[in-house]
Design goal:
Layout (H helix, E strand, L loop, with lengths): L8 E6 L5 H13 L3 E3 L9 H13 L3 E6 L19 H12 L3 E6 L14 H14 L13 E3 L2 H30 L30 E3 L12 H10 L8 E5 L6 H11 L1 H4 L5 E6 L7 H13 L3 H4 L4 H14 L2 E6 L18 H4 L17 H10 L6 E6 L17 E5 L5 H10 L6 H12 L3 H12 L8 H6 L14 H14 L3 H11 L5 E2 H8 L18 H13 L3 E4 L4 E4 L1 H10 L2 H16 L16 H12 L3 H8 L2 H9 L3 H9 L15 H14 L2 H17 L3 H14 L5 H18 L2 H18 L2 H12 L14 H13 L4 H14 L2 H17 L3 H17 L5 H13 L6 H10 L5 H10 L3 H16 L7 H13 L21 H12 L6
Parallel strand pairs: 1-2, 1-3, 3-4, 4-5, 6-8, 7-10, 7-11, 8-9, 9-10
Antiparallel strand pairs: 12-14, 13-14
Helix pairs in contact: 1-5, 2-3, 9-11, 11-13, 14-15, 14-16, 16-18, 18-22, 19-21, 19-22, 20-23, 23-24, 24-25, 27-28, 28-29, 29-30, 30-31, 31-43, 32-33, 32-34, 34-35, 34-36, 35-36, 36-37, 37-38, 38-40, 40-41, 40-42, 41-42
């Protein structure tokens, strides 16, 4: 978007004689708000030939555009170059404002407005143009179905009221944007902070990227083998990039190892300019690189497009980046390639993303955390993807192992502007070419038939097969002899296997054909959870020979030369991948999965010890100071190795306390945490963990109960109670009792209350200050959520004097302050000082959960203060933190959408419908408020009633904020409260272990717990 010359000017565009009074009211509002109305009344008389330039200059020099469309089309001066279609001055001004991307407010006169006959368009041709203009102006773009926000007025008084509100909102938006730009850039500075207005390159500096239209790549793609075949796919891409194709985006979807990146690079570099000659530029960006995220993609793309230092764009806010990129894409035809987009999705935001099987990632929600795998980690990325799909006249080519949710609707169909193309295996003739390029020879028809039948011409497996054939001792490379030899090709015995089994069996055979050193190296790599560089590989793999090995039977790699030979052999067979930019070695996930199944326990112990020796010798960030997943990656690797070696007690000591707390509280890496906990249950969740000590078994069982779904957690909490009774301790028993009580259903309320009372008696009997604080704090949290303010104040006064110096596994610094901030928010008494203090304490405690909760509280506070712009930042950041940890937060999604609506941004109805479907009953009130904001009272009432019924059924712990919100929305919509039937409580069920707990509490009260 071109920056206006006069940021304080606002363009008022309309016909003149018929709307004099309306213009006067609008000019008055603009002037009172200390902005300059840019209007023809102030520009003086102009010759007809000058009026076009004068009018368009006024639009260009203004910060925003206000359009008023009446029932008259207006002056339409003809100019063969500037106005060959004889459009009115008003329509020309509107078109220019659209082209520049100016913030826009639009008023359209309704049919009931009283007007003079002279103020109604009488020219038939102009009446047609006026009708077309009125309809087109309502839409976001000429070809869009989505309508912009506009006001219809039926009287001068109605226009005056609407103008005062809408223009006030517009000016607040301009001032927020101006404040942001000045904060980021400094007043009077260029984009890169310099006052020198020359281009970056003109000042003798370099962006590090070529100038458009030359191809720019971040980084350049380096394939592992020569490109072969794919003629039909290349033609398909060339057809799609034609300007006549209606889809701006093409998403190439395929499983790992199918050659997506190689195909897109081949077409980009050798075919795209032949298919189309008018590209403004071509840009490749790989998300496989470390640190590659959507904002970095935007910075790099904009730097290339505008010939500007990339670092300057990194100072801008995300929304500003997105707006500038879309403006460039809509101005000229650019070709952008986004390679490996799956890496910005939830499914692949994990420590072992590179090792994930497609079968694990390609499901809507995984088994670890029930997370939505197809969503972007950062919610703003979803919005950018949807905007890229509409970026005419540019073209966006995407390769991904998963289809992003942002690009599909609720019916699982792709959104308009997107073409989804599934990439199959190679054509048989191309697979044959690939095999022959490695030195294989034989009957052409037989080779093609074999490859198609046994591996669907999957490039990864084709490469592995080529390695097997080239290793055929009787006649290396001879496919015909190899395939007919009972000891080799025929021994694969693929006839009874399905396609997936055939692929895996071929890979297993390829691994089995390796020499001992190569196989040992492959097995070692399969134990690692992430890629490694050569230095680490040397430390892990090389074992200096202690004895001579003349016959080569020693499986150990004794020197760097042997290691290099083993690496090259694995690469040539297509079993090992090398990341040139990161200089790291890794296995394809399919290869890793097959290799893991081959390793026996003896070899696992030998190789696992190498892994332990290496990773335990490295320095790492103290676990309590960890802030991101990389900080705990070595610890994860160590625990994983112990578990693979079945050294469960050692794994426990490596995980328990500090590392476990860091995973759960600091980093919030619950999927990774649960995957480690699962390793302690080799026989499944229904059996006990493979540990001998009771305290260890209790700890691991309790961790599993906290991380798993409520249905499974109830059973585990009960088992934890039984374990804590074997070797009674007040703290473990208290934690398990509370956890079990919280898992009981609503109709088991009486039992839950009885157990909570028993837990409180246990705390009092223990006389443990830490347990007493925990008990009081739980009671305070319950009082806050039920709106019992008197009890909350009493408990807070007690907590204030109890201190905060407790074990980190029991209490996180800032937890009480966060709860107090929520309490005061609900009362309308929260202040900046209280919020800031809570944030400072939480920062010292380093808990991502509390940071997220406080961010949402601050967002709600900003919404209440009618500052939706800052609320957007808060909710967006909180939601990003959730998705980075693989968690869904529909409440936060709904509040983010509401803040965007109140800030004047758009919100797609389909997104609100999705939230309505996936949200829990407890979140229905925020969904109802969202529908209310959208002007959909029927939907608002439906969800408000759902929220009301849920709230009243929580008796006696009714969540007051939910109940009050539902009642308010129903009253606003003039709807009655729904009737409800109270849930009956079952007869009190006494659990078999309760007597043992009461006996233990009695002994504590008597001061003799061990008797």
């Amino acid at each position: 978007m071109e920056k206006p010359k006069d940021f304080k000017a606002i363009m008022l565009s309309s016909t003149f004689t018929d709307l004099k009074e309306h213009r006067a009211r609008a000019i008055e509002v603009i002037s009172k708000l200390h902005y300059m109305p840019s209007v023809m009344e102030h520009s003086g008389a102009q010759a007809e030939g000058d009026v076009i330039d004068t009018s368009l200059d006024m639009v260009r020099n203004a910060a925003a555009y206000i359009g008023v469309i009446g029932l008259k089309y207006g002056q339409a001066p003809f100019d063969p170059v500037r106005n060959p279609d004889r459009l009115s001055i008003t329509e020309l001004e509107f078109n220019e404002a659209m082209r520049l991307g100016r913030p826009m407010v639009l008023f359209i006169m309704g049919p009931d407005h009283l007007v003079r006959a002279a103020d109604i368009e009488s020219d038939p041709e102009k009446r047609i143009k006026l009708d077309e203009f009125r309809e087109r102006a309502k839409k976001m773009r000429n070809d869009a179905e989505v309508q912009r926000v506009y006001e219809v007025f039926s009287s001068l008084e109605q226009f005056s009221t609407a103008a005062a509100t809408a223009i006030g909102n517009l000016i607040r938006l301009l001032e927020r944007n101006e404040r942001r730009d000045l904060e980021v850039l400094g007043e009077g500075a260029g984009l890169d902070g310099s006052t020198d207005q020359r281009s970056f390159r003109e000042r003798g500096l370099d962006t590090g990227l070529p100038r458009p239209p030359a191809l720019a790549a971040v980084p350049r793609y380096l394939g592992s083998h020569s490109f072969v075949g794919r003629e039909s796919e290349l033609l398909m891409l060339s057809d799609w990039c034609d300007a006549a194709d209606p889809n701006s985006m093409l998403l190439l979807e395929a499983v790992g190892g199918s050659g997506k990146s190689m195909l897109t690079w081949e077409w980009l570099t050798k075919h795209s300019t032949r298919a189309r000659e008018d590209w403004a530029g071509r840009f490749w960006y790989s998300f496989y690189e470390k640190g590659a995220v959507m904002t970095d993609f935007c910075c790099a793309a904009l730097a290339y497009m505008t010939d500007t230092d990339p670092s300057a764009f990194r100072k801008l806010r995300t929304q500003q980046l997105f707006d500038r990129l879309i403006a460039q894409l809509e101005r000229n035809p650019w070709l952008l390639v986004l390679d490996g987009l799956e890496r910005v999705l939830v499914a692949y935001h994990r420590h072992d993303a590179a090792q994930m099987l497609d079968s694990d990632a390609g499901v809507v929600s995984d088994q670890i955390a029930g997370r939505d795998n197809w969503s972007s980690i950062r919610p703003e990325d979803d919005r950018l993807l949807r905007r890229l799909a509409d970026a005419v006249p540019s073209k966006i080519l995407v390769s991904s192992r998963l289809m992003p949710r942002a690009l599909i609707n609720s019916s699982r169909a792709v959104v308009p502007g997107v073409r989804r193309q599934l990439l199959p295996g190679l054509r048989p003739v191309d697979a044959e070419t690939m095999v022959r390029s490695s030195g294989v020879f034989g009957d052409s028809i037989a080779i093609r038939a074999y490859l198609q039948r046994n591996c669907d011409c999957h490039p990864l497996v084709v490469g592995a097969l080529a390695g097997l054939i080239n290793d055929y001792p009787p006649d290396r490379g001879n496919f015909d002899r190899w395939s007919e030899d009972p000891k080799y090709g025929m021994s694969l015995n693929l006839g009874q296997l399905d396609l997936v089994q055939r692929k895996n069996h071929i890979l297993e055979t390829a691994i089995g054909a390796l020499d001992q050193k190569g196989r040992r190296l492959l097995h070692l790599l399969s134990l690692l959870r992430s890629a490694v560089d050569f230095k680490s590989l040397e430390a892990l793999a090389i074992v200096p020979n202690r004895v001579n090995d003349p016959d080569g039977t020693d499986p150990n790699i004794s020197n760097a030369n042997d290691l290099g030979m083993a690496i090259r052999d694995l690469e040539q067979r297509g079993l090992l991948q090398y990341d040139l930019s990161g200089k790291r070695y890794d296995l394809h996930p399919v290869v890793r999965g097959v290799a893991v199944e081959r390793i026996n326990q003896e070899e696992t112990s030998v190789l696992g010890q190498k892994v332990l020796d290496h990773f335990t010798s490295r320095q790492h960030v103290p676990w309590n100071d960890a802030q991101k997943l990389e900080d705990v990656s070595d610890g994860i690797q160590v625990v994983s190795a112990f578990l693979r070696m079945k050294r469960y007690s050692d794994a426990f000591y490596a995980l328990a306390e500090d590392l476990a707390n860091a995973l759960h509280y600091n980093v919030g890496a619950d999927p990774e945490f649960l995957s480690l906990i699962r390793g302690f249950f080799p026989e499944g969740w229904d059996n006990s963990p493979a540990l001998t000590e009771t305290t260890q078994r209790w700890y691991i069982t309790n961790c599993a109960a906290v991380l798993l779904s409520p249905a499974r957690a109830r059973e585990l909490h009960e088992r934890a109670i039984l374990l804590s009774l074997n070797e009674p301790s007040p703290d473990s028993l208290y934690i398990s009792l509370c956890g079990f009580a919280n898992c009981l259903s609503r109709n088991e309320f009486l039992a839950a209350e009885r157990l909570r009372t028993l837990a409180a008696e246990l705390v009092e009997a223990s006389r443990d200050p830490e347990l007493l604080f925990m008990s009081k704090f739980r009671a305070y949290s319950l009082a806050v959520r039920t709106g019992n303010r008197q009890l909350a104040d009493e408990l807070w006064a007690v907590l204030e004097h109890m201190g905060r110096d407790w074990r980190r596994g029991v209490y996180r610094p800032g937890e009480a302050e966060t709860e107090r901030a929520l309490d005061l928010l609900n009362r309308g008494e929260l202040t900046e000082q209280i919020l800031t203090r809570a944030e400072e304490v939480v920062a010292r405690g380093n808990s991502i959960w509390l940071k997220q909760n406080l961010r949402e509280i601050r967002g709600e506070w900003y919404l209440a203060r009618k500052d939706p712009d800052r609320a957007i930042d808060c909710f967006s950041e909180a939601l990003t933190w959730c998705r980075e940890r693989g968690l869904e937060n529909h409440h936060c999604e709904a509040r983010l959408a509401l803040a965007r609506l109140r800030a004047g941004e758009s919100c797609e109805k389909a997104e609100v419908e999705r939230l309505s479907t996936v949200s829990e009953d407890a979140d229905s009130v925020v969904v109802a408020e969202l529908w209310q904001e959208l002007g959909e009272p029927r939907e608002a009432v439906k969800h408000a009633r759902r929220a009301y019924l849920w709230a009243v059924q929580q008796e006696p712990y009714v969540p007051l904020d939910c109940l009050d919100g539902a009642v308010r929305i129903l009253a606003d919509c003039s709807a009655d409260l729904p009737p409800f039937i109270a849930i009956g409580h079952e007869d009190e069920h006494v659990f078999l272990w309760e007597a043992a707990v009461r006996s233990y509490v009695g002994k504590l009260q008597m001061g003799n717990p061990t008797n």
